[in-house]
Amino acid sequence: MTSVKPLHLVNSILPLHYDLQLELCPSKVNFKATEIIDFKPGTQGEGLLQRFELHSRDLVILSATLNDDIAVKVSYDKENQLALFNLDQPVDVLTMERIQLTLKYIGKIKTIKTREDETSGVFKTNFMNQETGLSDNFVVATHCQPSYARSIFPCVDEPSWKTTFQLSIKTLQKYEVVSNVGQLSSVADDNQDYKTVRFGVTPLMSTSVFGFVLGDLEHSTSQATMTHSSRRIPISVYSPMNIGDSIFCLDIVQKYLPLLEEYFKADYPLDKLDFVLLPFLTDMAMENFGMIFVQMNHLLLPPSMLADAKTREQVQQLVVHELVHQWMGNFISFESWEYLWFNEAFATWCACVLLEHTGDIPNYWTSSEYLQNQVENTMRTDAKIETLSISAISKKNTTSLTSQTHDFFDPHSYMKGIAILRSMQVCIGDELFRSALQEIFQEARFHAKPIKPIDIFVRMGVLLKSENIAHFFTSLCQTPGLPVVSVEIVKSESAITTRLTQHRLLTAKQKNLEDVPYHVPLLIQLPDGKIDQKNVLLTDRSTTLNYPIVVCNHDAQGFYRVSYESMECYDQINKEVALGKLSAIDLVKVFSDLSFFVEHSAKNIHMVGLYSLLKNLASNEMDLEKNKVYWAGLCEGLKILDLPKLKSLKYNCASSEILDFKAGILKPLANKINRMNSKNPDQYQLEVMSQLKTLKKN
What we know:
CATH architecture of the domain at 1-215: Sandwich
Shape: elongated
CATH class of the domain at 1-215: Mainly Beta
Largest sheet: 8 strands, mixed
Helix content: 25-40%
Number of helices: 19
Strand content: 25-35%
Radius of gyration: 30 Å
């Protein structure tokens, strides 16, 4: 594992623990606070401390004292959001038993009135009291990601440093008060109007996932029975209204929190878990450690809305995604915002693995939602010369003082990251991949300090005795674009060989382009139906196999396209289709790739291949009523005929041959469908029928 890079602040001390004592009343525009920071000597300096810095934004520090008796002068660098601390005389911190800084200060409570208002630092929202009709109910909450903790307390506000926290809040007696960990005490003041709530000490965590909420909140509570740790974890959902509509969220948490603990073989790191539903939140959700914030409209759903299967799936994905972050993103965290893409991609990948495994979202990885709506779009973007690598995009989106989380979030990197993780999981094998992750979660160094994503895969390579794992990851992250693997089956009198060649895929030819080979997971299906275990990864420009294959990228689980460039390839695919042995998604993928090649750089063999595949499906020998799984592939293939290049439905593929798609495919296919007696046609069969009507008119 690589070491954490030095902090950007000029410091001779590094924080170990923050003790925050806040006083908040929603009717006021400011909050009062006392902060005690325990430090250790940093890596800079030789033990003498006279000047140091902390991040601070819109905070007025009234006093600063070192070790209770050394006065510290405070000034500000507002442009760089810093509080500058100076001592009259340098002190030798190496001789001190403790280094403790006590600050008294005032901060702002930001008022949020519309969805356009930025929820950052400490913010409040008032809303209507449903009993009185008055807008005198309040919620005060926090948002620290990426760098707004400095608006709540002076701190080292960087993802590269983790500390523990303890929080006390003085507020009105009537308010619910929630933070990252459970309450230790709640003590009423003498006048009984106010109370002071003291929370426990958090695990090591970044400032970005610290938080609290207080106000007029309803809640619903249950328990999650953990199978790995044998604990019962209290779980709650808080909302300013309609708490009864949050029951589905609570059910999901109750089901999946134990499953995640079992999946990682790592104890849930906290003593409780809360979901807090807020009227306004700049991000859809925020995975604060032990206290997840979500925009209210995403999870407060009446039964009538949850009756829709698609809505239920979306809610499940959102909730489980945020649960995954409690382990990956919070427990294991990353040293820079340039790795946000991986943090988010991992959470989605892992959530979908579990949701598919339980059957809540069956066959997710071979669904059109994933392959067509996500992967296909991502590959089309990656085929453009201007699209940078994930690594380059991440470095380009560097942190600025005005950045929000979405400024670091790149949808392309996110979607590609999910595909990379899925591809690695398939190639390594579910069990081996999971067992390696479990080992990593058990190792203290992975959560004691922030890491880089590559650290995970370097360690996984050591555990599984394969250097290719780390190379596989870096290949697809650091190399721009995506590969295309050309496949050519050559038959001779003595042998059958298959030639595989890889290049970078582009929508147009480019001069002077460095074409670096990728690590491509071949996922080859052989004629006997098995997956080739001899040739798993293509790392060179090309390789030759002394046997035929059916398809590369079986079930479309690798992030690349395949160009079949000999008629023997299409003959082999057609043979498997005729026997009903080709998977439905493999046929869809063959047509998806052909669609790209026809649109951008069609070779004669692509047109001939397309014609042969569609003709086979349209033939009387192909029983589509028996092999209903191929309707989806046929639907994808007919889409190609609607491309501008094929609008005439004829293509002169060679001087001696004209491919007439209308006569050779559309008419026989229409006649075939008319003879069918399907009482309950599925969505793809209906779409094919609609496509035929449109294409015949052209």
